[in-house]
User: Fold this.
Amino acid sequence: MILRLDNVSKSYGALKVTDNVTVAVPRGEALGIIGPNGAGKSTLFNLITGNVLPNEGRIEFLGRDVTRAPAMERVRMGVGRSFQIPQPFEGLTVFENLLTAAAFGRGGREADMVDACAHILDETELLKKANVVAGTLSLLDRKRLELARALATGPELLLLDEIAGGLTEGECKALVATIRAIHARSTTIIWIEHVLHALNSVVERLLVLDFGRVIGIGAPDEIMASREVREIYLGLEV
Amino acid sequence: MWLDTLVQGILLGGLYALFAAGLSLVFGIMRLVNLAHGDLIVFAAYLVLIGVTLFGLSPWLAALLAMPVMFAFGWLLQTAVLNRVLGKDILPPLLVTFGLSVVLQNGLLEGFSADSRRIPAGSLEGASLDLGLVTVGVMPLLTFASAIAAIVALNALFYHTALGRAFRATSDDVVTAGLMGIEPKRIFAIATGIAMVVVTLAALYLGMRANFDPSIGPARLIYAFEAVIIGGLGSLWGTLAGGVIIGVAQTFGAAVNPEWQILAGHIAFLAVMLLKPRGLFPRAVD
Assistant:
């Protein structure tokens, strides 16, 4: 297993945003996470990346207990992340964003990272905008940069947070094709997404969260057919 | 006469830019206003003075040796004290640096008394260059050249090195920087260390050009602060422009009436704030 969460819980005061979550992710898997707004999906990512520490439970990455490890240490171990609301370093160019992520995320010299960054820019269709200041990018390009920058850290586990949100159908298709290509290289992916057709075209399993609890995990078809999931997540009366 | 006043003002601006560059650097990266900045300049001036008077070094060599000491001091100060109080609330770092200012002033008073001191600069003190229309002092010229060199070096560091990119990334978004493998607290410590190296350069020229004593830090802080604000928060070239504006305003004020020198600098600051509240070349967003 590349990632294992055992009985992980997180509360803010009386509010439990992650409730006893247990999940194991095998290396090379693409796992989708769905759930209504406020279900605790992004908090789960924050727990995995180390932005937030759990109140209870244990998190293992690559067989090592990282429950209390700081975020920068987890990045260097191979946890890469994109944000739901793109958060590029706005004053840096697109290329500088990647170079910084590569140099510090992988822990090497910038000069050794240039080719890898150029390749990632090409893969994410940002090569022509390499010297554009990130703060001036369109939403699609910001999303691409989120993905590119996470890839630049050299992740073994890639966490994608609603990367298809707000994109047109055509833009979404292009992004899905890129994610498929990344997954084909055996990169483990955990993807939070509301655009279900995009998500289901990539992931092998779906995990459903509601009020911080895992209410289902399994093959996408199975999950989407589940009465509980359809009621809670899709709001359908069945 | 007015051309001479203008040139002297521009050159004086170099000293103010040196006072302000470290402050601008620290503010640009971590949004920290260091109220002890002026006292740290005075502290560094005493450090250089010790090198000159106690060990018989030239001021240049004494400053060169003081720079790594001040870098280490800045690094330790940030790591042991300031990193603990940096956060969303701007008040704790303000209070801590205000406290540091009081401690430094009283510590220097205890160690060196209230007597005015000066770093002996030898033959450079009165040396001047006749440029035809104006005559300029060698020391003010060196100060201005050093200010430009310091700002060029800091800009090169910011825009052409991995460390500089980490400075800018951390300045943009400290949480995301952590998720890219950057250690913000380490970056902050290095930034304060570098700011203290610039402070030492400012202290060298302050000590060679004027008398100093433990109480003059707060006034240097005000000049530095005004230069940073006029230039626009986070912009190093803006800081130089801010220093020059204050310097020129002061020399013109003094030319009209010697008592108006300091007042004219502050009026120039207020005038810029009225016309451009975010400064002339703002870079920082907050």
Chain A has a mean pLDDT of 89. Residues 169-184 of chain A form the longest helix (16 residues). The longest strand of chain A covers residues 15-25. The radius of gyration of chain A is 17 Å.
